[in-house]
Design brief:
This protein has 180 residues and is an alpha+beta fold. Helices cover 50% and strands 20% of the residues. The protein is built from 5 helices and 5 strands. It has a 5-stranded antiparallel sheet. The termini are far apart.
Length: 180
């Protein structure tokens, strides 16, 4: 390996790469510091919260108040009551938004290089297509089971009718034999 490739990466390059990854993510991302102040969020996060262009999220309280209209009450209350440096959760929830019906909301603590709590990563992932497809599959599966049950019932009825015809056939054969 050449020495040219072993040189340390400049912090500006790392910051540029991280910023690019955050901004280009298909998920809504928000990073808060240890004290709950907002460090960074991507455009997707701002658009999910339907923030005005000049609106700023300064701390977790701002984020939580903006999420109030989008999350189901039980999940919102969970965030309110349990939020703290160690709080983490990951849950699929109904999401009240014009473009997203279901979302996976994930909040996880992040650590610095020494392992100390440094803040949190908030991720909101659109799961609308996945959940709707899953519901369609479940519906189709229930429909298949119902049709299978109906088919088995009809098959039993046909088997019973076949046995009755066989008995009648035997009776007719016996009657014809006795007649002759």
């Amino acid at each position: 390996i050449s020495k040219k490739n072993n040189r340390p990466i400049k912090p500006d390059s790392v910051n540029f790469v991280l910023n690019t990854l955050i901004q280009s993510s298909p998920d809504a991302l928000l990073i808060t510091g240890f004290e709950g102040h907002v460090i960074q969020y991507n455009k997707k996060f701002a658009s999910l919260l339907i923030l005005a262009a000049d609106a700023l999220l300064k701390n977790e309280e701002d984020v939580i108040s903006q999420l109030r209209n989008h999350l189901p009450g039980y999940f919102f209350q969970k965030i309110i009551s349990e939020n703290g440096p160690d709080f983490s959760c990951c849950e699929d929830v109904e999401f009240n938004h014009p473009d997203i019906k279901y979302a996976q909301c994930q909040i996880a603590p992040i650590q610095d290089a020494s392992g100390k709590k440094a803040g949190k990563l908030w991720v909101i992932r659109d799961r609308t297509d996945f959940i709707q497809n899953q519901k369609s599959v479940e519906h189709a599966s229930r429909d298949i089971e119902k049709r299978k049950f109906e088919f088995e019932k009809k098959n039993q009825d046909l088997g019973k009718a076949y046995r009755e015809v066989e008995e009648l056939n035997k009776s007719v054969t016996e009657a014809n034999r006795l007649k002759s």
